[in-house]
């Protein structure tokens, strides 16, 4: 009798709570859980837009420890600390939770201080039309024309903060000069643009470069069709994140894409200029570091100076040596661990008046030098490349621009004047360096020594072994005759 009574109470509670819950959910769905802001609509501090599948949230936040500053941002819903984009980086709302994001009549997003009515941030479109803003499941906030083809008027992916998400571009539009690059936060709790920048360098062959102020700190090496020359490990996770460099008239850009089933991942440029690829582990709810750059001393830009060659496995020589045919500009400086002065040619080139006696020495397995001042021809063959470099006395080196076809590669990149930022890497490329004829004679002498010395050594070893054998045989012979003598003696004694 007791039991059913007891059971009835929770049911009654549920019956009472359920409609309340439903009403609450419906209300919050209308005010909060939408992914779209229609023309004239707004969200205030405390309200959010949530993308259709819930991956991303747009709303107001304060960085840890700075409650007085309010920013409008987009974050990864499962990990609100993972802020992927910030609108008003330079202009936080101070001491107020009266911020309002509205989409004005002509498709402009505007962030207002609801108290003073002042605009602290707005989107900038070249064309205006009545529009709707929608937060997509990629993390992109897109403003689309309401009528017609629904053209994109503005999107947050075109204005990256410090984070690159799948589908975002790092690069530029050569026609408009518009650039997509990452800018670090000033501090972990200050989204204001910091000192460090990561951009695609489109001069020569495209490569990704990290800058600190005006100083180049790290480069990935040129795109070789499959990966950035200095980051061969990109190939090892290409089943999860495909990498692509697009070269078109209106776009030169690096894009990564996540394949189905890949963990959610983001590339973040830290305040000190370190770029990390982080991947979300939903089970343990942590971000794992998937890859990081720079990785080691040899990644420091121009670590060994002009014509220097960095090798992480040679700590004993302070990682730096000179490319074959070159020696330290200032040996005393070099021994004082200042290798940045670089290397210079041991023997001047012999080139001019349309003739040359120079040749090319191959340096194998390297991240190709900075291609900023290079001449690139993607359609040339490597043989044509060699001929062109040979014919131009300013050309100090050449290499294949693209390794997709296998073999020695195709396409042509030619360096003028000097080479900088070369290091050994796994699966590195071949670099052909111009040297004076006499350097090859030296190399040949070295080669001769390399071949002849081991032969001499083996001959000597063989001779020694034979002599030893002969000696042993002789000894054995003597021992045998001695034994026979003793036996004979014994026999003699017995009889
Ligand atoms: C935001 O929208 C509400 C109606 O949804 C309106 O009452 C309010 O005035 C709007 N605020 C601003 C600042 O536009
Ligand atoms: C915000 O409030 C704090 C404490 O009330 C005050 O010290 C600070 O000056 C205020 N900042 C602004 C920008 O009003
Ligand atoms: C909007 O863009 C134009 C040209 O692209 C630029 O001249 C102008 O300063 C920008 N305005 C704002 C508020 O960013
Ligand atoms: C990224 O992958 C999705 C499917 O996984 C595809 O629809 C989309 O076109 C790809 N984007 C790029 C830029 O490759
Ligand atoms: C080029 O030719 C001129 C005249 O024929 C000669 O004086 C000069 O030394 C030559 N230069 C080289 C680098 O061979
Ligand atoms: C490219 O040329 C510019 C101008 O001559 C020079 O300042 C820069 O150091 C060169 N860069 C490289 C990598 O050779
Ligand atoms: C050598 O190459 C440089 C750079 O591309 C070019 O300016 C120069 O005219 C070339 N010289 C010759 C003789 O082709």
UniProtKB/TrEMBL annotation:
Reaction it catalyzes: L-threonyl-[protein] + ATP = O-phospho-L-threonyl-[protein] + ADP + H(+); L-seryl-[protein] + ATP = O-phospho-L-seryl-[protein] + ADP + H(+)
Q: Which residues form a coiled coil?
A: none
Provide the Bulb-type lectin domain boundaries. Answer: 34-156
GO cellular component terms, alphabetically, are: membrane
Q: What EC number is given for this enzyme?
A: 2.7.11.1
Q: Which GO terms describe its molecular function?
A: protein serine/threonine kinase activity
**Where is the Apple domain positioned along the sequence?**
351-436
Signal peptide feature range = 1-30
Q: Name one GO biological process term.
A: recognition of pollen
Q: Which Pfam families match?
A: B_lectin (PF01453), PAN_2 (PF08276), S_locus_glycop (PF00954)
Function comment: Involved in sporophytic self-incompatibility system (the inability of flowering plants to achieve self-fertilization).
Descriptive protein name: non-specific serine/threonine protein kinase
What species was this sequence derived from? Panicum virgatum (Blackwell switchgrass)
């Amino acid at each position: 009798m007791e039991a059913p009574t007891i059971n009835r109470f929770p049911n009654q509670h549920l019956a009472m709570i359920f409609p309340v819950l439903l009403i609450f959910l419906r209300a919050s769905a209308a005010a909060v859980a939408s992914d779209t802001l229609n023309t004239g609509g707004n969200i205030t501090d405390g309200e959010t837009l949530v993308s259709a599948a819930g991956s991303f949230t747009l709303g107001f936040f304060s960085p840890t420890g700075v409650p007085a500053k309010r920013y409008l941002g987009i974050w990864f819903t499962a990990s609100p600390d993972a802020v992927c984009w910030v609108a008003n980086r330079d202009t936080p709302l101070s001491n107020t939770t009266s911020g309002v994001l509205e989409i004005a009549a002509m498709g402009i997003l505007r962030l207002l201080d609801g108290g003073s009515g002042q605009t602290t941030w707005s989107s900038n479109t070249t064309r205006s039309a009545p529009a709707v803003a929608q937060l997509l499941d990629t993390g992109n906030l897109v403003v689309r024309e309401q009528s017609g083809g629904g053209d994109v008027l503005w999107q947050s992916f075109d204005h990256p903060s410090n984070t690159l998400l799948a589908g975002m571009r790092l690069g530029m539009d050569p026609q408009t000069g518009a650039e997509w690059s990452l800018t670090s936060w000033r501090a972990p709790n200050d989204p204001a643009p910091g000192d460090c920048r990561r951009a695609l360098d489109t001069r020569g062959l495209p490569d990704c470069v990290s800058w600190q102020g005006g100083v180049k700190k790290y480069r990935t090496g040129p795109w070789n069709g499959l990966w950035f020359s200095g980051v061969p490990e990109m190939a090892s996770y290409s089943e999860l994140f495909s990498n692509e460099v697009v070269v078109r008239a209106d776009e030169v850009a690096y894009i990564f894409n996540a394949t189905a089933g890949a963990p959610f991942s983001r590339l973040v440029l830290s305040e000190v200029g370190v770029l990390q690829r982080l991947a979300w582990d939903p089970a343990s709810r942590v971000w794992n570091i998937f890859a990081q750059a720079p990785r080691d001393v040899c990644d420091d830009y121009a670590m060994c100076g002009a014509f220097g060659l960095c090798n992480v496995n040679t700590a004993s020589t302070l990682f730096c040596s000179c490319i074959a045919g070159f020696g330290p500009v200032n040996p005393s400086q070099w021994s004082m661990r200042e290798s940045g002065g670089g290397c210079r040619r041991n023997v001047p080139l012999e080139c001019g008046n349309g003739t040359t006696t120079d040749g090319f020495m191959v340096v194998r397995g390297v991240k190709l030098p900075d291609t900023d001042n290079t001449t690139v021809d993607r359609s040339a063959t490597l043989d044509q490349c060699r001929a062109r470099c040979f014919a131009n006395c300013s050309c100090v080196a050449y290499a294949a621009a693209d390794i997709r076809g296998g073999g020695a590669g195709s396409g042509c990149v030619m360096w003028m004047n000097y080479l900088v930022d070369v290091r050994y890497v796994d699966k590195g490329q071949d670099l052909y360096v111009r040297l004076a004829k006499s350097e090859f004679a030296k190399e040949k002498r070295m080669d001769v020594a390399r071949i002849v010395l081991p032969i001499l050594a083996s001959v000597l070893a063989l001779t020694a072994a034979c002599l030893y054998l002969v000696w042993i045989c002789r000894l054995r012979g003597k021992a045998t005759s001695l034994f026979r003598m003793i036996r004979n003696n014994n026999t003699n004694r017995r009889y």
